[in-house]
Amino acid sequence: MSKQYVDMNTPVIEMRNITKKFGDFVANDGINLTVHKGEIHAILGENGAGKSTLMNQLYGLFKPTSGDILVNGKKIEMNNPRDAIDAGIGMVHQHFMLVQPFTVTENIVLGTEPTKGIALDMVTARKNVVEISERYGLSIDPDAKIEDISVGMQQRVEILKALYRGADILILDEPTSSLTPQEIVELIGIMRNLVKDGKSIIIITHKLKEIKASADFCTIIRLGKYIDTVDVDTVTENDLASMMVGRNVTFKVDKPEQTPGDVVLDVKGLRCVDYRDVEVVRGLDLQVRRGEIVGIAGIDGNGQMEMVEVITGLRKGTAGQILVNGTDVFNKSPRFGFDHGVSSIPADRQKHGLVLDFSIEDNLILQNYEEDPFAKSSILQREPIFSHATESIEHFDIRPGGSEKRPAGTLSGGNQQKVIIAREVQNDKDLLIAVNPTRGLDVGAIEYVHRYIVDQRNKGKAVLLVSFELDEIMSLSDTIKVIFDGQIVHSIPGKEANENDLGLMMAGGK
Amino acid sequence: MEKKKNLTTIISENRFIHTIFCVILGFLVGAIFLVVMGLDVGAAYGRLLKSLSNIKNISYVIVYSIPYIVTGLSVAFSFKTGVFNIGAEGQFVVGSMAAAVVGILFGHLPKIVLIPLCFMAAMCAGALWGIIVGVLKTKWGINEVLSMIMFNWIAFYLSNFIAGIPAIHSDGSAEATKNIADNARTLLSEDLIKEWGLCNTANWGIIVAIIATVLIWFIIDKTTLGYRLKAVGANKFAAEYGGINVNGSILTALAISGALAGLAGSLQLMGMGNRISVFSSQEGFGFAGIVVALMGCSNPFGVLAAGVFYGWLTYGGSKLNLEQVPTQLINVIVGTVVFFIAISVIFKYLGNIKKSSKGKKGE
Fold first, then answer.
1. Whether B363 and A48 lie within 8 Å, measured CB to CB
2. Any chain B CB within 8 A of the CB of A28?
3. CATH of domain B61-318
4. pLDDT value at position B321?
5. Residue A375 near chain B (CB below 8 Å)
């Protein structure tokens, strides 16, 4: 990036020698960070490296054990996010902080609602929201309820919320993890507009490509320690990756050639409507065969999520047939689908994938709690449940070890995903549906998840992969199907795909 | 600084200690009220303690506590399974009326048949009351809290209506039902009461309450049913995704919870009440169950202890006017205890911040 907007003489954020300890554990060990006016600064590190801890101190959620924080050259004590907001810092969290039954407008203005006398002035609020969303080119439906819109849309609301509060320094925690390639390009455009306005952006990420595409400088953290701050123009993606994990990383997925077998999933003429009663899946046909990964590429909102929900039994379709090994599971319960060979890694792991208050051992038996050996005569058998968890934790490298009895909610995102994968893979069903399986995971965890998905294919399972990560679709899929406006419009062999063509097809071109 | 931290951590992490802490605060606030009113704190609390002084008083406390334990279990079970049974009041009322009808009309049956029959009738009536609300919720999405509050009143007037039916209504001038048959009563034998020096309504309902406590603990902690209901309560989306029948589980949870409240109604009738008066206002056994469940941290054994505590305060409170202390002191104490337990969210929040910061360690 050209750094044309960076004012190197005006540091807006200086974090000096920040150390944060939790008990004996050192999460941040003497970290330095300087961000200038008009700069996009990336913080790079694996999950658990201490990026979020560092940013949470900047946002007033934790207090540093030692070290100083300066905003606009003045030392500041941050006791809570209010102090950070007052200092002009805004943060978009990775896990959204939205009120589900509220509308987009209500969420964006929450806490700073315009009023008329003592009454809420929702007309003005809505106008302001529309205005700001147009100004930054983030289109949204201001009247939709959060619980009804996709993860990608929710992310936009979060970004708008921070912008609405007029922050000069924006912290974005994994902002692109759920966006489509086109949306990412748009977001980068928005970020450039913002720095042009004299704002500064800190972006927490482990996506090297985006750092190259958007950031001016990058600070790398590994295991809580400061590694380096580099000028992004002078380093390659591989340099960044090895600085992040401390070893060389391969991005390639090894996949032996194999000929697909019988059809496992056969979707015919599927139709369904979304929450607005608008038909979003419109006569969709799809086949997935044994030993094959079929990747669904498409821009969010083209019906792929609703399609998966109908296949997994969470949503009723309006017409069509869904054969799994010849049995029609259309409009049957999730249990019926499961019993007839469907397992899935859901898009929203905290909502659908896990009961966060349940222990890991209990989450691992979510579908099998009534079966031998986990239950006998309707009584849960704690010993087999525990040893099953011990084996899974060991085999699937769920960290920390020995966490059988810990609530799933205390694990990091990557390890929560491993719990779901452990459960679904061990269910050993003929069809595995994976939706955005690596969302928010770091390079190491992604490698791992991809290996398991390919393993399933190699074992002769049928795999349906729905992902907004084009790289993921391209590197894993044997066949790529492009979904547009509720129909499969293109089907191409994975080997022949390239990003530009796919991008065009997803936008309805070609 | 470090020491203060430890105290909040201990209080927030150990629910038992936390509850005791809240109870102490309740008595402190009660004492403040007494002092402000110029009353003798020692005399008032002394009278409360006196109600635990001999076997007769203790037997009163236990008899008083029976319905509170079981309605407490009802509400605690609903908390664990993600519904809020504010309708225990109405289920209690229909349960006791069902038991009364059976106890009056089938008085000729032997004890060994009649008593279980009364219990069954009460539990079925309570469960039915829960299920109706559950169907309204699962079929039409009607908020269970609203419909339960309405069903509390429906139960109230239904009970008054049934009490007025000639076959049920008292032959005398009392605005109440007939007395239930002696064969439907759970009283201990007169000899035993005399020999042990117990109160004259001493009954073995407490045994039923203890059995119910153990049974509910077993269901919640040890069975696949409990697993399923808890999963739906904690995250119905994940439960559905995992193949659990969410609506069926909600209905089951409400039925069990309702059956318990109904059982509580029959225990009160067959032990203490003997007949059902025409109500002029809601008696509040079901609402007390909410208080007991909160004090017992929704843990069945916690509820057992909290029920006895509540029974003690109710019985002890009824003696307070002997010291010229208003009985309402009890409401002040209980209200304060519940208040501090309810704001335990704050303690938990403080604890959680520490926990989650510790949790980072494992990432």
1. yes
2. no
3. 1.10.3470
4. 84
5. yes
Strand, coil or helix: A268: strand
A398 at interface of B, judged by CB pairs closer than 8 A: no
HSE-up (13 A, CA, CB side) for residue B293 = 25
Nearest to B19 by CA among B11, B10, B31: B11
Percent of chain B with pLDDT over 90: 63
The residues spanned by each domain of chain A are: 7-88+167-245, 252-341+431-510, 348-428
Cβ-based interface (< 8 Å): residues of B facing A: 222-228, 230-231, 234-235, 237-245, 355-363
The contacts of residue A404 (CB under 8 Å, 6+ apart) are A359, A360, A361, A386, A389, A390, A393
| Range A68-81 burial, b when 16+ CB lie within 10 A, else e | ebebeeeebebeee
Which among B213, B216, B257, B251 has a CA at the least distance from the CA of B86? B257
Question: At residue B75, does pLDDT exceed 80?
Answer: yes
**Residue A255 in contact with partner chain B when CB distance is under 8 A:** no
Which residue type is seen at A67?
G
Chain B residues touching A410 at Cβ < 8 A? 355-356, 359, 362
What's the rounded Cα separation, in Å, for the pair A374 and A380?
Answer: 6
Fold for A252-341+431-510, please state it.
Rossmann fold (3.40.50)
Question: How is chain B split into domains, by residue range?
Answer: 1-51+321-363, 61-318
* A371 has a chain B CB within 8 A of its CB: no
Tell me what the mean pLDDT of segment A66-95 comes to: 87
Contact B245 A399 (CB under 8 A): no
Which top CATH class is A7-88+167-245? Answer: alpha beta
Give the residue from A300, A272, A275, A270 showing the smallest Cα distance to A286.
A270
3-state secondary structure of A123: helix
How far, CA to CA in Å, does A13 sit from each of A8, A17, A35? 12, 13, 5
Task: Give the span between the Cα atoms of B300 and B309, in whole angstroms.
Answer: 14
Report the percent of chain A where pLDDT is more than 70.
97
Nearest residue to A319 (alpha-carbon basis) of A285, A295, A342: A285
Least confident interval from A268-277, A431-440, B11-20, B215-224 = B11-20
Q: How far is B216 from chain A (nearest CA, A)?
A: 13
Instruction: Using the Cα atoms of residue A296, residue A298, residue A300 and residue A304 in order, give the sign of their dihedral.
Output: negative
- Burial of residue A361 (CB within 10 Å: 0-12, 13-18, 19+) is buried
pLDDT in tens, B10-40: 666 677 788 888 889 899 999 999 999 888 8
In DSSP terms, A226 is beta-bridged to: A221
Residues of B in contact with A354 (CB under 8 A): 235, 238
The answer, yes or no, to whether residue B352 has pLDDT greater than 60, is no
**Which string of DSSP letters, residue by residue, matches A171-200?**
EEESTTTT--HHHHHHHHHHHHHHHHTT-E
* B356 has pLDDT over 60: no
Mean pLDDT of B272-279: 90
**Interface ipTM:** 0.79
Number of helices followed by number of strands (H, E) in chain A = 16, 24
User: Can you give the three-state secondary structure of B17-69, one letter per residue?
Assistant: HHHHHHHHHHHHHHHHHHHHCCCCHHHHHHHHHHCCCCHHHHHHHHHHHHHHH
User: Chain A to chain B, count of Cβ pairs less than 8 Å apart?
Assistant: 94
Nearest residue, CB atoms, B357 vs list A62, A351, A355:
A62
